[in-house]
Design a protein that fits this description.
The protein is α/β, with parallel strands linked by helices. The chain is built from 12 helices and 16 strands. The longest helix is centred in the last third of the chain and has 25 residues.
């Protein structure tokens, strides 16, 4: 069990602050979602029409009517530079454009939150990942702690549900007796072994015991405790269930949640691949995703959690402005769009702009560091703080970037 389950530096009496990051794995198309180009030729504008929103002058794809209705509460960023990104989530889930999953270096924003803020409630994880089921390792879509160390890796929410309860025949008093016995052995051992490894093991064991005895984690991860009407409202597919679980987790005191639906499902190169092209791939996906995003935001709002929960919807890069011969769009690193809501941000606005084709940044270029600094500002984490790399060098939490001023 990661020590991100324990209160980290920065704990204490604070107002709860959380982040839910919805990861659209594969690279969602900016032109076919949040940055439509209705006046361009078909090969650029794509198969869908644009619709007006609750904010005059702002348009989105016709397949996202619920986001359109909530636009006064949302901010669309249309000028995020995805240069250097690839299909790994490292660039836009980490603190630096220089991050590299294969080197396992820069930590994710979730791991920084675990280290420098900790959970909002004791004996709860600080950072939870909800990957696309259990068929793939969590790091396929959810980036971890890098050089920050294993203490701050995300808890794999797809694999822990139902595992916090005690085995049959083990009662709380019996478990507590065993814990007292274990502590006696540990005190004996600690007189002979002061290694960091032993201390970490001891801390992890205490955290796991607190999980079981408290029962809070078991309840938080149990979506079946929700009324059937709420589960039906979100939808009982993987995206709806994950979004509902994310709400339950932040409500229970978890600081940072990253959820992914299906690995690579937004990688719409063309009709020759399983994900299909833009029309065949998005015509059913976009309404479903629109419904889940809107349902999550409205649910958080009704529960008084939206003001304290920053919600981000994004992928790893954008899609090419000109469609392929097989009705898809290829990877596009020059620019991507993303959605921001909650967390006290100023809604009803578009930040940045692309050129007439939607392929180049025309106004207000932003990068991964600006996004990370924005997340840290919301969480009350000082971006000038440092983490220490394996060579003992201090590294700033954000090397290039400042909070996006329009959001605050």
């Amino acid at each position: 069990m990661s020590s991100s389950t324990c209160p980290a530096a920065g704990g204490g009496a604070r107002s709860p602050k959380s982040v839910i990051q919805i990861w659209l794995s594969g690279g969602p198309s900016q032109i076919d979602m949040w940055d439509p180009k209705p006046n361009m030729p078909t090969e650029i504008r794509g198969p869908f029409n644009a619709i007006s929103t609750a904010v005059p002058g702002v348009a989105v794809c016709e397949l996202m009517p619920r986001q359109a209705a909530l636009m006064d509460k949302l901010a669309i960023i249309r000028s995020m530079d995805a240069g250097g990104s690839n299909h790994w989530p490292v660039t836009f889930q980490s603190t630096s454009r220089k991050a590299n999953r294969d080197r396992g270096d820069y930590p994710s924003t979730g791991s920084i939150a675990a280290r420098f803020r900790g959970p909002n409630q004791p004996n709860m994880p600080a950072f939870v990942g909800l990957p696309a089921g259990t068929s793939y390792p969590i790091w396929y879509d959810i980036y971890g702690s890098g050089y920050l160390g294993s203490d701050y890796e995300p808890v794999d929410g797809a694999r822990v549900a139902g595992r916090f309860s005690m085995p049959n025949g083990i009662t709380v008093p019996r478990l507590q007796d065993r814990e007292r016995l274990r502590r006696e052995f540990d005190r004996f051992k600690s007189r002979h072994d002061n290694s960091q490894q032993f201390e970490r093991h001891d801390r992890h064991t205490r955290a796991a015991l607190d999980f079981v005895l408290g029962g809070n984690a078991e309840r938080a991860f149990d979506v079946e405790q929700e009324p059937a009407v709420v589960r039906d409202l979100y939808g009982r597919d993987s995206l709806g269930a994950s979004a509902l679980l994310a709400r339950r987790l932040v409500e229970a005191g978890i600081t940072y949640v990253v959820l992914s639906d299906r690995l690579g499902s937004w990688d719409h190169h063309g009709d020759e691949i399983p994900q299909k092209g833009i029309d065949k791939g998005l015509r059913h996906m976009l309404p479903r995703t629109d419904h889940v995003i809107a349902t999550l935001l409205e649910d958080l709002d009704q529960r008084g959690l939206l003001e304290s929960t920053l919600v981000l919807v994004m992928g790893e890069f954008g899609r090419a402005p000109v469609m392929t011969k097989t009705a898809g769009r290829d990877h596009w690193l020059q620019v991507m769009s993303l959605l921001v809501a909650g967390g006290g941000i100023r809604g009803g606005q578009v930040i940045g702009a692309t050129d007439r084709r939607g392929g180049e940044i025309a106004e207000r270029p932003l990068g991964p560091g600006d996004l990370a600094a924005t997340i840290f500002k919301h969480l009350g984490i000082d971006s000038s703080e440092h983490w220490i790399d394996p060579a003992g060098r201090p590294r700033p939490l954000v090397e290039e970037g400042i909070p996006i001023r329009e959001l605050f």
